[in-house]
Design a protein that fits this description.
With 80 residues, this protein is α+β, with helices and mostly antiparallel strands. It has one domain. It has one helix and six strands; from the N terminus they run ββββββα. The chain starts with 5 loop residues before the first strand and ends with a helix. It holds the Pfam family DUF397. It comes from Streptomyces boetiae. This is DUF397 domain-containing protein.
Length: 80
């Protein structure tokens, strides 16, 4: 997937029959520290209440989410 494309997900509140459907999108961005050869790739999708993180080598695996405060603390620690 091109990292500039949005990833759409159907809301868990949507009905299975196609009615009352809501979809949300994550704008995944690859880390500038990720290798260009496809290795060591991390992508993040910042949202107002959570920062979603995934391994871009296997986007079918679940991502995890951190609060913005926790993500900021992680980045501060990682920069040391």
């Amino acid at each position: 997937m091109n990292s500039s494309e949005l990833s759409w997900f159907k809301s868990s509140y949507s009905l299975g029959d196609g009615g009352d459907c809501v979809e949300v999108a994550y704008d995944w961005r690859k880390s500038s520290y990720s290798a260009g050869d496809g290795g060591d790739c991390v992508e993040v999708a910042p949202c107002p209440h959570a920062i979603h993180v995934r391994d871009s080598k296997d986007v079918t695996r679940p991502s995890f989410a951190a609060t913005p405060a926790a993500w900021t603390a992680f980045l501060s620690y990682a920069r040391r």
